Amino acid sequence: MPKPKVAFYWCASCGGCEEAIVDLNEDILKVVELVDIVFWPCAMDFKYDDVRKMKDNEITVAFINGAIRTDEQEEMANLLRKKAQIVVAFGSCSHLGGIPGLANFWDRETIFESSYGKGCPSVDNPDGIVPQTVSKVPEGELTLPAFHNTVKSLDQVIDVDYYIPGCAPPPYLTMKAIVAILSGELPEKGAILAPEKTLCDECSLNDSKPEKISIKEIKRISEVISDPEKCFLAEGVICMGPVTRSGCSEEGDGKCISANMPCRGCFGPPPEVKDVGGKMISALASIVGLEGEENMSEEDVEKLINQIVDPAGYFYRFSLPTSLLRRKRMSNPAKEDRYNG
Amino acid sequence: MKDEKLAIVTFLCNWCSYEGADKAGNARLNCPSNIRIIRVMCSGRIEPQFVIQAFIDGASGVLILGCHPGDCHYKKGNYKAIRRISLLKKMLRQFGIEQDRVRLDWVSASEGERFAKVANEMAETIEQLGPLPELKILN
Ligand code: SF4
Ligand code: SF4
Ligand code: SF4
Ligand code: FES
After folding, report:
1. Residue A334 has pLDDT above 50, yes or no
2. Which residues of chain B lie closer than 8 angstroms to A105, CB-CB?
3. At B40, which CATH number?
4. Cβ-based interface (< 8 Å): residues of A facing B
5. How confident is the model at residue A336 (pLDDT cuts 50, 70, 90)?
6. Most buried residue, A97, A268, A314, B50, by most Cβ within 10 Å?
7. Cβ A325–B56 below 8 Å, yes or no?
8. Integer Cα distance of A321 and B38 in angstroms
9. What confidence score (pLDDT) does residue B134 get?
10. In angstroms, what is the span from residue A322 Cα to ligand 3's centroid?
11. pLDDT tens, A235-287?
């Protein structure tokens, strides 16, 4: 019997998710024994045409990491969808929009301005030249993929069968997923292949929380020497544990927590959380300034709240494109599309 | 229809503000027609997610009214609301949604006139801001 065919592809990604495959270490040899890797541009020499030539559904499973930011990525996602029986959104960028998704606080025009225009002090570009999808040169035409205004998660572009969360996903979850797929023991379509409990539920620091937390001051992690025995939130350092799915480490404690860093939410929300930011505001408002709340003026509250410098960026660090609001409403949303013909 | 475009979702706490609105109605005070009232048990019940959802569903403004500080039926729900809404407004601004589109205020059961005043002020603010620009997910 021919071996099942597997493809790996990257879209708007940092390469960390590719590294996460390599991090399977010896296990990758087991995988290679069981499957044929038919496409993996980051690690092996394949061409897009190799995929185009395949029959529909010829690939058993395609793991796609990275968000969708350009035409090329969208096209490849669609192509792989056609050629693969199962598509897995691999990693936070693909699952939720991820770090590249933070670009949704801007649009193409403002991004180009800060990268190629006067907004960028290290760029000398007096003619204001910006990337064009087509440029005519004496030798002919040069083309570039179009750069989108809005970053999308993979499932905002194609139908996705499963998700493996994490920035980057931990090897043990990847391995579990591969084994499940190869053995045909598949969960329900659309499943996120990770535990459902919150990180707090699994956190060994949870017990250190006092019965009633009241934070008088919000501190950034760089401003404190945090006690490895104490819950970050109780100390006034924002930890996304209450609104984040567990499973980033096999041991229970979050990977970041074990490294004495607060969770930043890369695993995304557990099933009961509809919107990470909304829920995190609720969680924080219940503990910030709780003590003596009846004597606090609105100005006092504002002062306290203003210590959270960048709530949207902090809460949706990994998930802006899949948040309820999805992106910033630009006052002038790319009125004249001067960058794409 | 102008009214539809400028819908103001209005959350009223059951114990004070809803009664206040009722008083305003009974006294036939002039109230804006574009408020859409939703009764909740307490202003502290309002999750930021509800406010965000209202905007996504087409509201141009969200008004949240509860008992005056100190008078909350559940003692402290409205204090929590102050902190929630304050942080929510700050976050919404980062999404390009003006802070004035959300207002948290207090109306007691006897304050029919105050209800009418706050509701009319809110309607005026939203009239000035206009409808929330549609969210366009542009390629
Ligand atoms: S999820 Fe993290 S590791 Fe993977 S591509 Fe995105 S930023 Fe990189
Ligand atoms: S808030 Fe963070 S540190 Fe505290 S229990 Fe939850 S995950 Fe652990
Ligand atoms: S602790 Fe949080 S941010 Fe860190 S790896 Fe786990 S889920 Fe991701
Ligand atoms: S019951 Fe009215 S604000 Fe709590």
Report:
1. no
2. 94
3. 3.40.50
4. 105, 107, 146, 148-150, 152, 274-275, 277-279, 281-282, 284-286, 288-289, 293-294, 296, 298, 301-302, 304-306, 308, 310-313, 315, 324-331, 333-334
5. very low
6. A97
7. yes
8. 29
9. 75
10. 18
11. 999 999 999 999 999 987 999 999 999 999 999 999 999 999 999 999 999 99
Do B46 and B57 form a contact (C-beta atoms < 8 A)? no
For B101-121, the pLDDT digits (tens) are 999 999 999 999 999 999 999
Write out the residue range of the structural domain in which residue A51 sits: 5-100+150-182
Q: What is the CATH number of the domain that holds A24?
A: 3.40.50.700
Burial class (CB within 10 angstroms; exposed 0-12, middle 13-18, buried 19+) of B37: middle
* Cβ of A101 below 6 Å from ligand 1: no
Tell me the Cα Rg of chain B.
15
Residues A268 and A160 reside in one and the same domain: no
> Does the Cβ of B72 fall within 6 Å of ligand 4?
yes
- From A186, A182, A121, A115, select the one nearest A147 (Cα to Cα): A115
Ligand number with the minimum distance to the CA of A10: 1
Tally of domains within chain B: 1
In a domain, B10, yes or no: yes
Report the alpha-carbon distance of residue A30 to residue B52 in Å, rounded.
47
Mean pLDDT by 10 residues, chain B (139 residues): 75 96 95 96 97 95 96 94 96 95 97 97 96 73
Cα(A199) to centroid(ligand 2), Å: 7
Does residue A284 belong to any structural domain of this protein? yes
